[in-house]
Amino acid sequence: MKLLITHETVYDYQPVVETAQHMAYLTPRDDDHQQLIGHTLIITPEPAHRSVTSDVFGNKRSFFSLQQPHRQLSVVATSKVQTCASRLPGNLVDWESTRERFRYRAGNAFDPANEFVFASPMAPSQPEFADYARASFPPGQSLLLAALDVMHRIHHDFTYESQSTEVNTPAAQALVQRKGVCQDFAHIFIACLRSLGLAARYVSGYLLTAPPPGMARLRGSDASHAWGSVYLPGSGWVDMDPTNDRAGAPSPGEDYVTLAIGRDFSDVSPMRGVIYGGANHTLRVGVTVEPVVDEALPCKVAVSDDRNETS
Amino acid sequence: MEKIQVQASSPSPAGAAEVRLGELAARLRCAKGHFDELHGALKPIDAGASGATFSEAYGALSKRAWAGFFAEFGDQTRADMNQRSAHLARQVRDNGITYNVYTDEDGPQRPWSLDLFPLIVEPHEWRHIEHGVLQRVRLLERIMADVCGPQRLLQAGLVPPALVHGHPGYLRAMHGVQPVGARYLHVAAFDMARGPDGHWWLIGQRTQAPSGLGYLLENRLSISAQFNSAFDKLKVQRLAATYRALMDSLHANSPLGADAHLALLTPGPYNETYFEHAYLARYLGLTLVEGNDLLVRDERLYLKTLKGLVPVHGLLKRVDDQYLDPLELRADSKLGVPGLLQAIRAGNVLVANAPGSAFLESPALLGFLPALSRHLLGEELCLPALPTWWCGENSAMFDALARLRDCVIKPTYPGAPGHASFDAVLGARQTQQALDEWAGRIAQHPQEHTVQLYMPFSQMPTWQCERNGNEATLVARSVMLRVFAVADPTLGWRVLPGGLARVASSDQDITSMQRGGSSADVWSLTDGEVDRTTMLHPHLTPESLLQRKRLVTSRAAESLFWLGRYSERAENALRLARLMLESLHGEDPNNTSLLTWLGQMAQANTLVLPGVPTPLQAPHVFERALIDSLGSSRGATSVGFCLRALKLAAAGVRERLSQEHWRIITRAEESLFVRFAELEHHGSSPVQQALQILSDTSDQLAAITGAQTDRMARDDGWRLLSIGRHIERLGFLANALGLALRYRTLESDSGFDAVIELFDSAITFHAQFQQSRDVAALVDLLVIDRDNPRSLSWVAHTLRGRLAKLAGSEPNELSALALKVPDPSAWGLAQLCAQAPDLITSIGPAPSSPNAAQVPGYDLLQEVLQRCWRAAFEVSDDISATYFSHAGLVNRSVGTQ
């Protein structure tokens, strides 16, 4: 599927910001599973300096700095992406042998996925996650089925509530509240698997949403999205989206676009920055995902969302 | 640590004072099971018990280098040693060597604790340590390079991923970064101790921001001075060449080579080891900077100074990695520089050590180093580490669990959020139940725990002063040695011939400065040449000299400005308080206009808390409140508050102040608080005592002023200090005279004298005008006189000049800021003294005072005073905006999803 994504971020500052430095993860991955056909990142005001590098996980990150006083910063990422079909592997490897694989002993073969077994800042190691996960992991259970069960349970047990958590809500708090947004669900999913010694990672991206029947697609009504991914020896990473109860490899579906991969949100925050001045700021984020029918020009985006939010 | 037994010789009638140091040394016993540094054996000969003679005991000692040391001082008595000890303690305090135990600003700075005797290491022993440390530091550099690059060691299974990828100190942002100069580590510290077998065993290593390189220098200076003859005779290897090598290497590896501008990055004065940051920076010729002194622009690092941005090419860092860059690492860090990692990646700045080395510090890694050494160097490690088991490996965990009682349990990831963090636990000290609980915790979270074999550390002689009725004597204390490896431009690495010995206090075996241990100098003896290189002749080019002169960081400038203001404010508050106490007990205690004026001044300067009755309403209550506030740093801003603020401002620029200057400041502050606290407890005739304290403090303040005017280089930093002082003086004096006019204080003799006294101009006035009390004469001296440093005219004139010079104006030209200060040349005595308001054309609105209608004339004078007073505030604000605020701006993190 060919998708066009427009992701606009606007900060309004009060008083002015004197200087600022930002780092953005707004360029979709371009790899075997997903092709990046076109991409622009328009920053206003024009940065004094900008550069693009790859991070340790192969994500593209953009640095830019602003050295002129400014009251507003607008960052518009426009990406055209070719996604591919998704499927679930027929992998029945059990979860205990996977766990053993990651346990260090002399002579054990190294697996790069091992890096995603360890606790990370936003998916810390806490017994509550193991307690929640345990029901899905009877002895000898296949890892794929167990992980799918965790996903189903989160989808079923948790309420999606857009104002219920902040960007930096610890996953443990969302677990207690039994509510949150996609980022929280992804973190809970990851923390659950890691608590049992399994490898899980965080995926940030977009999802094509269908407009309500009979209605036109509303510009900017979408949001960036996040989900989890579990490592199956022999098959690789299988993405699981507890928010929408969908799973598959290389992504939960053809309608998903992968922006970046990390241990958790803190590795791949779409934008982070340090500003001098600007004691108060308001933030608007607008995302539009639409299928590309022909080679139309990038559409104009109406920014509607008033909160720093994901779906 | 076990109780030390020093067996005194059979009680002699001559008294204990006659016992000589040599004899005490010969008879010193260390605790059972510990190696005896002094006698060089596990079990010292039992002279006292077996009745062996002194010479026999001394014979055993004489095989050690210590004999040479005690040969020099063997004849000294207890009294001699006590005197040395007291002298040393005074020197430590006078040099301002501190170790901040608590990190809040009110917390006490504890004087650095330094033992009288050095730890002496013989040449062959030192060669072994040196060899072992060199090998280990080369190994650490290789591991670091692999982890930041191809990670083959992980792939080969030689390092558990949990100790790299699972370690919070492994920085993904640094992966794939080839640092400028192609080396990651420049300084590393190795903690070791000597076991009962007489061999040295490694206990741990520090690479992030190891402390000690400054303290050990101070230790060396103090102790070598105490025992200079022994120091020369024993051929103690000197340290300076190693520091020089480090500096040369940092220059050679930095982007600009020999011309590079290098700085030492400190977390600031509240860090527990700030003293040594300042000390080391001065010794090495580095600019001492905090994170907010720096900024990154276009992937380059700059220092914010009074004259603008100055490039920085290298940082010797003492800030922990996670705090270095809020853009990529901890977003809440106020200690770092946003964009620093970018500058590092771009190769524009050298950071020593490269961020991301913290994983090397985990005790868990020690168990993997022997295999890593064979793999990377093809060598066996010649300095062994204590056997260490990382419990994340099943077989190691079972080994460890079986011997917990003989071990120390340590956290694998100490201090890391989200990980188990606890103080090391000595198995032998635990009950069986506690030990079982530890075993349970280990089994549940094996990766979090590392178990290290317990080893009794060797013990060295220390001098224990008289305490709790026990006479002073030699005691043996457990000691741990920190040895430093530093980069060398030609050899790659070299080991500092010396180190920091950390001495356990009596009830502990695990040495830690934070838990009240002490330190000792380390004398590494050489049988070769003593290297007499000094750091005193750094190769300065005219360019670097020029650059160094210009460097006044914005933060230092701000501290200097406040140092000036608080010095003056302390003097003013003190003079005012004295005047009040004297007036209340003087010849004219019922002088209403005088007391009203003093009461108003006390309120205006917050010498008493709001709500305290005026001296007219309740003189005794007022007096009590005034005295109470003098020695308090809270609420009122009286003398005590100003002195403490003065000290804090001085601490911020500690490295710019002379030793004497700093010493007077700390002594003045300490003694004032101590004496007023005593006054509170048993205060008979508190007024006389308070006056005495104020008088002594006044002398000290005069010395502080002297040091500021005569002992500081007159650069822009000093100019700001002076400006701060004069702004404070301008505001205070203008307000004082204005209030005196309003309340008719000058109309009585005692009021008139008090005003002159407050202007510190009594001597000058009486010399000129004898007993006359003419208002015109007073106005002439206190307002118009260009030769009296307390006259408003002099103050305003000086302020205008300094502000203009600071702004870089041409001589005889004034900057915009300077023009904000009223021009004293416009003031004429006749006009200012004119009393009839209708004869003068008023320049502005009359001073707003509730009873303005009743006060006598002097309208123009009042107007001038008001303008001076307002100018003090405005100029101060403008200085902040012009010179400091880019350093003070709040740094915020923003993010989206």
Secondary-structure blueprint:
The complex is a heterodimer of chains A (311) and B (897).
Chain A: E1 2-27, E2 34-44, E3 49-54, E4 60-66, E5 70-83, H1 95-101, H2 127-133, H3 143-157, E6 159-160, H4 171-177, E7 179-180, H5 182-195, E8 200-207, E9 225-232, E10 236-241, E11 246-248, E12 256-262, H6 265-268, E13 271-277, E14 280-291
Parallel strand pairs in A: 6-7
Antiparallel strand pairs in A: 1-4, 1-5, 1-13, 1-14, 2-5, 3-4, 8-9, 8-12, 9-10, 10-11
Helix pairs in contact in A: 2-5, 3-5, 4-5
Chain B: H1 21-27, H2 47-50, H3 54-61, H4 65-73, H5 78-94, E1 98-100, E2 109-111, E3 119-121, H6 123-148, H7 152-155, E4 187-194, E5 200-206, H8 215-226, H9 228-233, H10 240-253, E6 262-266, H11 274-284, E7 287-290, E8 294-297, E9 300-305, E10 308-311, E11 314-317, H12 340-345, E12 350-352, H13 369-376, E13 388-390, H14 394-401, E14 407-411, E15 425-426, H15 432-444, E16 449-453, E17 459-464, E18 473-488, E19 492-495, E20 500-503, E21 518-524, H16 542-550, H17 554-584, H18 592-604, H19 619-630, H20 639-652, H21 659-681, H22 686-710, H23 716-742, H24 749-758, H25 762-769, H26 775-784, H27 792-806, H28 829-833, H29 859-888, E22 891-895
Parallel strand pairs in B: 3-21, 6-7, 6-11, 11-12
Antiparallel strand pairs in B: 1-2, 4-5, 4-18, 8-9, 9-10, 13-16, 14-15, 14-16, 17-18, 18-19, 18-20, 20-21
Helix pairs in contact in B: 1-3, 6-13, 17-18, 17-19, 17-20, 17-22, 17-23, 17-24, 17-29, 18-23, 20-21, 21-22, 23-27, 23-29
